[in-house]
Structures are given as C-alpha cells and as structure tokens.
Amino acid sequence: MPDNPVLHLRHKDPPIGCHALITPKSAKELVENGFTINVESSLVRCFADSEYKAVGATITQFPLQHLHVYAGHIYKEQTGSYEKLLRYAQGGGILLDIDWLKYAGGLDSVTYEYHSGLLGTALAIKTWAHQLLYKDVSTTPPMPVGSNLEMVVQEAQEYLRRGVEFAGRLPRIAVIDAYGRCGSSAVHACHQWGIPDSQIVRWTRADTARPGPYKDILESDILLNCIFCSGSIPPLVDFEALRLPRKLSVICDISCNSHSPYNPIPIYSTDCTFEKPVLSIPVQSGPPLSVIAIPYLPSAVLKEACENAATVALPLIKQLGSWDDSSVWKQLEELFYEKLQTISETKVASRAML
C-alpha cells in the first residue's frame, strides 16, 4: 500500500448525493490507518461537513479526477449510460462500480439491498391495505423521509393489521429472487410482521428461466421484484397478462429498472417518488393495480442505511490504497473496460438523433 493513500468523497446531486459510503465513523478509522480523506463539501449529504472535519478529513471544494468508486447505474443500458461511459473513454478515468461487487465476488450488501428489501416490503403492505380501506390509491400517504427503521416497522405492522381486519385474511406475497440479499430481507420482513411461509411464494432464477409472463404471479396479492437484472429476462407481468383473472393488486419493483431495456415489468416507465409513492396502472377488470418504483429506497432511512453499508464496505475500502492488488477491485476494473468496449461516439450520436 502507498505510504499515504488518498480517498476523495465526491459531492453529487440528490438523491444519490445524499448517500455516503464513507461515513464520519469509517473516515475516522481510515485516517487512523494512514489514509488521507478528502471530502468534497456538500449541503445534501446526510452527514455534515463538520462531522468529517472533526475526525481528521479535509473538506475540499473541487472534485478530483482519476479513479471513481460508486454505484454508476450505467451498465444496463439505462438512459444516458452511453454518454456517461463515453466521458470515461474520453477522459481516461476508471469506474469501479459497487453495484457489481457481487459479480466480482465481493460483498453484495454494500449497495443497500437489505434496507431496500425491508422498505419495499413495508411500502407494498401499506399500499395493499390502503387500497382495501380507501379504494383511491392516489391518496396513498407519502413515504416519510428521515424516518428510522423502528418507525417504518411499526407503521407497516399497523397497516397490515387494518388490512387483514378488513379483508379477513393475510396477503399472499410473491418474492422474485427470494434468496438474494434484497429478497431475503423482504422475506425476513414478512416473517417479522407475522406473515407465515404459507403466504410467501419464493421465486428463484430457475423459476424465471421459463418463458414469461407468469400466470402464477397473478395469484398473489403483492409482487416484490428483487431480481438484479444484468441482461434480458422474460417479463414477469405485462399488459396482456393483466387481462387474465388475478388477485394481484400491488407491484413493488424494488429493482427499479424502468429506464433500462432489461425492465421485467414493462407496464410502467415512470419512477415514483417518496412524495407520490404509487402509480395507478389502467386495467380492464379485476382489482385496482398499483406500482411502486422508487429509486434509492434506502434514502428513507438514510443515515442508518449508510452506516450499515459503510461498516460492511470498510474492509474493501481499505484495500483501495493498493486496489490493483485486490482481486475484487481488479475484476470491477475488467468489467468497466468490458462495458467501455460496447460504446462508440457514432452510437451515442445516432441515439441522440432519435
């Protein structure tokens, strides 16, 4: 490791700019381990500049170039991904995308899957109960930002109690990729709130290997999509499938691939927000259908989510002092160059003309 490795925490616009994979707590440990920590000043980050300065970090005003470590959201042909990759190609920078740590044999929890699964499940249950009680999904209350997990759990439990009291039964919940980090969190949340295994349908990648859409999903009240799509998969639900008899009334697309051609739920193309967490999908028959698709769900409990992610990521962050000796970071570098080969200025220009 170099004598004085330097890490720079960038400022970005919200919502992702509110997150911090290096927290004041982990910055203190890194400084004690010989790192120089530069923190780009930010008014939107969930930790104040003064908290970093107090543990020995240096507050700066200008971004540094070179190596970048963050969740880029540009490897699945999302809107704007070609242009962002082109900027790396032109500037000679490198992106080590933490969204793909699992691909590289690293830690799959660094990108907040645990909190995404829990919060998505809570919001889906709240929406299911609200549909039953009030009929009008447009009145679904906002998702409070700045909550803590205890508040989220209590609210979900209360909505579930009221929904069950009205319906006379528990909801049936389908969890796609139920054994991944996000899906496991969703299943754990269901158990925590009193929903037994008999009411949870666990889907694996083997289940989605057959042609879709899947009529089985329509038999559940709630669909939680937790799958990490690195390529095209059959649609889970489409408009044609919604013509069939169904119980399904709430879809929480925790993976939120609406801006990617790999979107496995092609019945919506607009993201939700914490202020308006639910989209109403037009259907010809059956119960109302609501879609929840909020990017960066962990922002609702931001400090808790960041502290958890930073603690898990700290051993890998310490390796950044000599990252080219780390098999995990090297695999992410190789993935970056692999993705870089897929772009060209001609392709970007042609897409811009459409």
UniProtKB/TrEMBL annotation:
GO terms for biological process: lysine biosynthetic process via aminoadipic acid. It catalyses: L-saccharopine + NAD(+) + H2O = L-lysine + 2-oxoglutarate + NADH + H(+). It comes from the Eukaryota. GO terms for cellular component: cytoplasm. GO terms for molecular function: saccharopine dehydrogenase (NAD+, L-lysine-forming) activity. Its EC number is 1.5.1.7. Keywords: Amino-acid biosynthesis, Lysine biosynthesis, NAD, Oxidoreductase. InterPro entries: AASS, AlaDH/PNT_NAD(H)-bd, Lys1. Pathway: Amino-acid biosynthesis; L-lysine biosynthesis via AAA pathway; L-lysine from L-alpha-aminoadipate (fungal route): step 3/3. Disulfide bonds join 182-226. Residues 156-293 form the Alanine dehydrogenase/pyridine nucleotide transhydrogenase NAD(H)-binding domain. It is an enzyme of class 1 (oxidoreductase). NAD(+) binds at residues 180-181, 208, 294-297. The keyword Oxidoreductase applies. Belongs to the AlaDH/PNT family. This is Saccharopine dehydrogenase [NAD(+), L-lysine-forming]. The lineage of its organism: Eukaryota, Fungi, Dikarya, Ascomycota, Pezizomycotina.
